[in-house]
Amino acid sequence: MTGAFLPLVNREHRVSITQQIFIGMRTAILSGVLEKGSRIFSWKDLSAQLGVSRGTVKRAYDLLQDQGLIVTKGRAGTRVSMTLPAVPLESLPPVRASQGLFYDFEEAPQYFQLGIPAQDQFPAKAWHGAWRRAIAIQSARPQVYPDPQGLLSLRREIAGYLATARGYRCHPNQVFITSGFAGALGIVLGAMGFRGSKAFVEDPGFPRTRHALNQAGVETISAPVDREGVNIPGSEREVRFAVLTPSQQAPLGMALSVARRAKVLDWANAANAWIIEDDYAGELQLTGRAAPALASDDKFGRVLHIGSFSKTLNPGLRLGFLVVPPTLTEVFCTFVSCLAPAGSIVAQQAVQDFMAGGHFYRHLRRMKTLYARRKTLLVESLRRELHPGVRCEFGGALSVRLFFPGTTDDVAIAAEAQRLSLGVLPLSPWYFSHGPAKGLLLGISNVRERSVTTKCELLSRLISAQTHG
Ligand SMILES: Cc1ncc(COP(=O)(O)O)c(C=O)c1O
């Protein structure tokens, strides 16, 4: 008999007393402090013991009962029954965590990690405010299905943002809210019926895009990248689409030249093909004004534009947007309604609030200045520290690229660096048919003045020890 167990309650706490009792008892039961079958205070007795109202304790007991943790048995009193957890994990055959993932997710960010925002300069107060209001609005909303295309007010904000920041005018009904770039690409591949077709991908290019297309049964054809950006090979026939990063080539950073922009649009028009524009960095271009979205020059209605909040706000949001030409809205509406409706309306509402309050625009302006400063800091430090055989390239983009001479093994260096908590990426996996360059990609967003020299020294020692040629 363990009936004397009393959960701790604190009246100063922001959590309700009911919740405190519920959590205290639940923890005691699940951790074995209260054993199965043992008798506990009745709710009336516990309310007297704790000096809180009977209703307060009764509500906590109801919650415990709903979870199958206690039962009330008349004269036999209230006892621990504990049917949670339903299946102890140890009794199941072990299942290894998947190896086929492209992220190191839910780890603390590493120095030089690419593709994440600055961790120290986020406007947390405005962001919390946006979420508080979003929860209030959406929790009072009737429990009905939301628009699968995404919250209209957010789609309006995005259309406004695209017009002002990316020079691209579209109707909110062309906009679909997605689970980031990855989710948008999945929708495009499904809705356009691209399985079994051929597509151009940039070489070098974002490895995840190439893998995604191969997963979806698309044959990928290399389109080489030179100083002007991607060059679509004229010799290939029957290519139905191309996935491109025109504003900031990933990973080399240049914007597609004016002549090449015209060339890819003409190719799409003449070949009856489509261009999927991956605008992953949006307006986060560090020198001068960001190149306008390719979709803004699209007279033929061949460009499907994808933006993401992963770099501008937080990759954990899993939010992005897809804008399709007006002729395709019907097809995409049907597809997303059945297979890929927009996700959490609370997250959508919070982003809408954040944008409508002007915080998003202010944040981006501040980040452009901050990232430019951090990049300069990094480049200066690398120039002091680096092995003379290593070429450092830093134009465009939210990264710095290092190119190694000869046969230096960039994958091995990156793996070693990661063991030392330096989140650099090897460059060679971004190439896939044009003789891979060897090197590293360094993210700039979390470079700090106080640590940059030490980190560059460490990286430089690693590189020098393994650089041949
Ligand atoms: C080239 C490129 N496209 C898109 C993304 C963003 O993908 P998502 O929106 O799925 O996070 C990234 C992020 O690393 C990227 O590097």
Beta content: 5-15%
Task: Quote the average pLDDT.
Answer: 92
Number of helical stretches of at least 4 residues? 13
Spans with pLDDT under 50 lasting ≥5 residues?
A: none
Q: What is the rounded Rg?
A: 27 Å
Oligomer type? single chain
The ligands found in this model are:
pyridoxal-5'-phosphate
Helix content: 25-40%
- Number of domain modules: 3
| Side-by-side strand order of the widest sheet | 4-11-10-9-8-5-6-7
CATH class of the largest domain: Alpha Beta
Summarize the structure.
The protein has 469 residues and is α/β, with parallel strands linked by helices. The protein is built from 13 helices and 15 strands. The model has no long low-confidence stretch (mean pLDDT 92).
What does this structure look like?
By secondary structure, the chain is of the alpha/beta class. It has three domains: 17-80, Winged helix-like DNA-binding domain superfamily/Winged helix DNA-binding domain (Arc Repressor Mutant, subunit A), CATH 1.10.10.10; 124-358, 3-Layer(aba) Sandwich (Aspartate Aminotransferase, domain 2), CATH 3.40.640.10; 362-466, Aspartate Aminotransferase, domain 1. It contains 13 helices and 15 strands. Strands 4-11-10-9-8-5-6-7 form an eight-stranded mixed sheet. The chain has a four-stranded antiparallel sheet with strand order 12-13-15-14, with helices on one face. Helix 2 (43-50) crosses helix 3. The N and C termini lie far apart (76 Å). Bound molecules: pyridoxal-5'-phosphate.
